[in-house]
Design goal:
Helix content: over 70%
Number of domains: 1
Radius of gyration: 21 Å
Order of helices and strands: HH
Shape: elongated
Oligomer: single chain
């Protein structure tokens, strides 16, 4: 496991705890900070996975290059492009999903505050 993956896993765990504590004590700033740290951790872990994959693809390419140099080089470039595209797409999807959930939470919080104001 490379340091980016380890740091990402740690950030996710710490962020999860921070989110839970923030929610438990009613501190939205802390809860949001925890969620942001989870996102950051997921991005770090994904980056670590991408680096491992790129390293693996690169090692495989070097081994085969002597036998299949030009054809393999083109396939490796295409594979690298595809991996980068998938990682970028996944990061966008994760970001959008989390942002949607955060928007839902904020909307629920606004409604809850409005309900409280109407009661008083």
């Amino acid at each position: 496991m490379n340091k980016d993956k380890a740091a990402g896993k740690l950030d996710q765990a710490v962020g999860k705890v921070k989110t839970k504590v923030g929610e438990a004590v009613g501190n939205q700033k802390m809860a949001n900070s925890g969620t942001a740290q989870q996102v950051k951790g997921a991005a770090k872990e994904t980056w670590g996975n991408a680096k491992d994959t790129a390293s693996s693809v690169s090692d495989t390419a070097r081994t085969r290059t002597s036998a299949e140099s030009s054809d393999l080089e083109q396939r490796t470039e295409n594979a690298g492009h595809d991996i980068r595209a998938k990682v970028a797409s996944t990061a966008r999807n994760v970001k959008d999903s989390i942002n949607d959930k955060l928007d839902d939470v904020q909307r629920d919080q606004r409604h809850e505050r409005e309900d409280i104001r109407q009661v008083h």
